[in-house]
Amino acid sequence: MICSYCQTENDSLREECEFCGAPLRKRRPQLKDFIHLDQCELLFNELILFHTYDLLILVRLVREERTNCYNLMRTVQKGSESVEIDSDTLAFAESEYRRYTARLRVLEGILIDRMGYKPKRIDDKLLKSLKLKVERWKGNGEQ
């Protein structure tokens, strides 16, 4: 078995690389073909297998949805003064906002572990730059 970190050949029965000590059976993050908002609901153990680029896209999607939930919640709260809105609708808007906030914290925590920080803004420029670096690295034949 070849170590995915140092590329050293190892006995297939080993659990760790004899050269660098890295786990031989650990799955490393791979770029996904498509990222969608529902993936934020995955468990932590599944999210840490996402590539950093994919995590950034997912954080961007969750931030947008969280903003939409916040705006809806504020609209419902303000509207309740002039129009009768049932408490279930308000409770739903608040729970969605809290749910996306919690999901965002998990994703940002993973990014902090990987990058040492969470990007304040995830724009097209940041994503394009990272995508270019990933493609260059893969173009060099390293994996």
Précis, in short:
The protein is an all-alpha fold. It contains four helices and no strands. Helices cover 56% and strands 0% of the residues.
List keywords for this structure.
single chain; 143 residues; mainly alpha; elongated
Instruction: Determine the strand fraction and express it as a percent band.
Output: under 5%
Bulk shape: elongated
- Helical segment tally? 4
Spans of at least 5 consecutive residues with low confidence: none
Largest sheet: none
Beta strands, count: 0
Query: Measured on Cα atoms, how large is the radius of gyration?
Result: 21 Å
Question: What is the residue-mean pLDDT, rounded to a whole number?
Answer: 88
What is the element string, with H for helices and E for strands? HHHH
* Strand-pairing-aware structural class: mainly alpha
Description:
This protein starts with 43 loop residues before the first helix and ends with a helix. Helix 2 packs antiparallel against helix 3. The chain has 4 helices and no strands. 56% of the residues lie in helices and 0% in strands. It folds into 2 domains: 29 residues; 98 residues, no CATH class. With 143 residues, it is mostly helical.
What topology does this entry show?
Elements: H1 44-47, H2 52-82, H3 87-115, H4 124-139
